[in-house]
Every structure is written in C-alpha cells, then in structure tokens.
Amino acid sequence: MEADKNMAKKSKLPANVVKYLEKAGVPHEILEHKTVYTALDAAATMRRKLGEIAKTLLVQADKDYYLVLLPADYNIDFKKLGKSIGQASKKGIKVVKIPTEQAMEKLLKVKAGAMSAFGGIHKLPVIVEKNLANVKKAVFSSGSFNHAIEMGVKDFTKMENAFLGSFGIKKKIKVIKSKAAKKPVKKTVKKKVVKKAAKKIVKKVLKKKK
User: Fold this and answer.
1) Which residues contact 163 (CB under 8 A, 6 or more apart)?
2) Contact, 121 vs 127, CB < 8 A?
3) Rounded distance, CA 18 to CA 16, Å?
4) What is the dihedral of CA 29, 34, 38, 40, to 10 degrees?
5) Is the predicted pLDDT of residue 6 greater than 70, yes or no?
6) What are the tens digits of pLDDT across the range 148-196?
7) CATH of span 9-170
8) What confidence score (pLDDT) does residue 171 get?
9) At residue 208, does pLDDT exceed 60?
10) How far apart are CA 28 and CA 137, in angstroms?
11) What does each C-alpha distance from 14 to 33, 38, 92 come to in angstroms?
C-alpha cells in the first residue's frame, strides 16, 4: 500500500533546474503534466509531435560520459555517434554504449529516469542530433516525471555549448488503425416463407367467414 501511495505522488520540479534556468536568463516555459516515463508518453500527454520532444540519454564513450539529445522519433546510430563525439572531444573513440541504470545513478546522483537534459547541471558535455535543430522549440526533460521545459532549440544549444552531430536514425513507427465497424447485415426473408405465411392468414379469414 505504501508503494502505491508513493507511485501516486507527483514528483516536484528540481530546485537546481529552476535556479539553473533563472541564472541562464533563457526564455522558457515550465510544463506541468501527468506522470510520464518515456519520450513517447510525453508526446502523447502534451499533444506534441515526436520531433518536438527531446529525448535525453546518458552515453559512455570509452571512459567519458556525455548527454546525448535527439528527437523522440529517432534512434542512435552508435557508429556515427562515436564519430560525432570524436569530433567534439578531439579524441579517437573506440567504444560507445549506454551505461547501466546503476552506473547512471552513481554518476549523476539521481534516480533512474530522473535525469535532466541540462549538461551544465550534471557537469557533462552535451551532444545534440542535428534533426532536433529543425524545430524552433522543443520540450526538454527537467528531471521530474511531472514537469518538462519548453524552450528554443537554439537557446538550448547555446546555453549548453552543445555539439551538433548527425547520428540519428528515423524510427519506423507503426500506426495501428482501428478496425472499421462492420456494416449491419440485412436479413432477407425468402419469398417462399412469405407466401406460406400469407396463405395461412387467408385460410384463417375464410374459416371465420364460414
């Protein structure tokens, strides 16, 4: 029961995110919404296109860590991401991978899923997929399951001193069409049945007359 109560509670907008944005002086809007755990859920809840939701991932490139942002309808091409990180860091990158949740919690001191999109807060460099820059505004993770930050993508990249790279693969999202309602079936009465019924009625009428 206690676990259910905790799940029902809304998470607060982290104070360090509020202070960080106020100090940066960048125009932004705080969006409050029902509890969501994925970028796809966020898009559906806030009625935004997937391309307007910035998905944030923690990535490990050899021994270093980076925050990687890309549109919610894109996946990472790790080979291309390695090249982008190599260009940004001016290092030869050998292995790029997503660290475990335990490693993320230990590094960032936050619970799984409660990572914000702001590298300045987590003291990590930020790599942004170029396709995210195709939209003027995007919705970014605040580190809360019930709040998001909407702001200009150019403002975000400038504030975070982010490196723009081309490493995304467009997802093939299947649209499930609802089955069309079946047309009502019209029942046809055979002529023979109608004729028999008519004959019976006629016979009854004749008997009464007699």
Assistant:
1) 84, 87, 88, 125, 126, 127, 128
2) no
3) 5
4) -80
5) no
6) 999 999 999 999 999 999 999 998 766 444 344 444 444 444 445 445 6
7) 3.90.960.10
8) 84
9) no
10) 10
11) 15, 18, 36
In degrees rounded to 5, what are phi and psi of residue 110?
-135, 160
Residue whose entry in the numeric block shows the structure tokens 């994925």: 38
Whether the per-residue pLDDT at 58 is higher than 80: the answer is yes
SS3 sequence, the chain? CHHHHHHHCCCCCCHHHHHHHHHHCCCEEEEECCCCCCHHHHHHHHCCCHHHEEEEEEEEECCEEEEEEEECCEEECHHHHHHHHHHHHCCCCCCEECCCHHHHHHHHCCCCCCCECCHHHHCCCEEEEHHHHHCCEEEEEECCCCEEEEEEHHHHHHHHCCEEECCEEECCCCCCCCCCCCCCCCCCCCHHHHHHHHHHHHHHHHHHHC
- 184-199 pLDDT, tens digit per residue, is 444 444 445 445 655 6
pLDDT in tens, 90-143: 999 999 999 999 999 999 988 877 899 999 999 999 999 999 999 999 999 999
Average pLDDT, the chain: 84
Query: What's the full length of the chain, in residues?
Result: 210
